[in-house]
């Protein structure tokens, strides 16, 4: 797999049996649909932080064709915007993979700090993944941010992948 920005091979982070790919140069992250499924867990559904607005309302999505290529399929990714969040996520309409720039990773975390009960979310991640930091095989920068990283995994799984249908519909209606 190839970084959509640097065009260099992606490396992968593995914990338990979940792999996420990242670019060792720009630290962008590539989440495959399969890899996001691991975060599914019944008891999570009542979490307060899930009530945040991000990726919740179908009519707040805007999509435009991008020029970056999907690391797996090598076809152009679509840029997905949400309301006034200022967050752009690149998605592949074929494999449903999600690319997050380093800057977008930071923006999402900032956004959560402002709009969500970050305390709850952070404590939650801490409890669930106490030992994870020790077995985390990714780069140092992400190791330090492991709670943020896990939070983003959860958020993408619950909020973003749930909207793939909406996003696909918008893509179908885009002018060619
Ligand atoms: Zn890169
Ligand atoms: Zn793809």
Describe what you observe in this structure.
The protein has 176 residues and is α+β, with helices and mostly antiparallel strands. 35% of the residues lie in helices and 20% in strands. It is built from seven helices and seven strands. It has helices spanning 33-36, 102-115, 118-128, 132-135, 140-144, 146-160, 164-172; strands at 11-15, 18-22, 29-31, 61-69, 76-82, 88-91, 98-100. Strands 1-2-3-7-6-5-4 form a seven-stranded antiparallel beta sheet. Strand 6 and strand 7 (98-100) form a beta hairpin. The longest helix has 15 residues, at 146-160. It is globular. The mean pLDDT is 83. The structure holds zinc ion (ZN) (2 copies). Residues 3, 5-6, 23, 25-26, 28 line the site of one zinc ion (ZN).
Bound molecules: zinc ion
Percentage of residues in strands:
15-25%
- Based on Cα principal axes, name the global outline: globular
Mean pLDDT: 83
Structure keywords:
alpha+beta; 176 residues; binds zinc ion
Outline of the structure:
The protein is an alpha+beta fold. Helix content is about 35%, strand content about 20%. It is built from 7 helices and 7 strands; from the N terminus they run E-E-E-H-E-E-E-E-H-H-H-H-H-H.
List the helices and strands and how they pair.
Blueprint: E1 11-15, E2 18-22, E3 29-31, H1 33-36, E4 61-69, E5 76-82, E6 88-91, E7 98-100, H2 102-115, H3 118-128, H4 132-135, H5 140-144, H6 146-160, H7 164-172
Antiparallel strand pairs: 1-2, 2-3, 3-7, 4-5, 5-6, 6-7
Helix pairs in contact: 3-6
The structure holds zinc ion (ZN) (2 copies).
């Amino acid at each position: 797999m190839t970084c959509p920005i640097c065009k260099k091979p992606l490396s992968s982070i593995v914990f338990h049996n979940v792999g996420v790919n990242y670019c060792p140069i720009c630290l962008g992250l590539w989440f495959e649909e399969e890899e996001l499924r691991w975060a599914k867990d019944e008891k999570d559904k009542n979490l307060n932080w899930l009530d945040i607005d991000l990726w919740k309302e179908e009519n707040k999505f805007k999509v435009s064709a991008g020029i970056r290529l999907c690391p797996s399929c090598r076809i152009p990714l679509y840029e997905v915007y949400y309301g006034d969040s200022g967050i752009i996520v690149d998605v592949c309409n074929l494999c449903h993979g999600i690319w997050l720039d380093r800057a977008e990773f930071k923006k999402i975390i900032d956004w959560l700090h402002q709009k969500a009960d970050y305390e709850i979310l952070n404590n939650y991640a801490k409890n669930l993944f106490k030992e994870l930091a020790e077995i985390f095989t990714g780069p140092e920068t992400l190791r330090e941010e492991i709670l943020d990283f896990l939070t983003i995994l959860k958020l993408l799984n619950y909020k973003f992948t749930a909207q793939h249908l909406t996003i696909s519909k918008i893509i179908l209606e885009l002018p060619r």
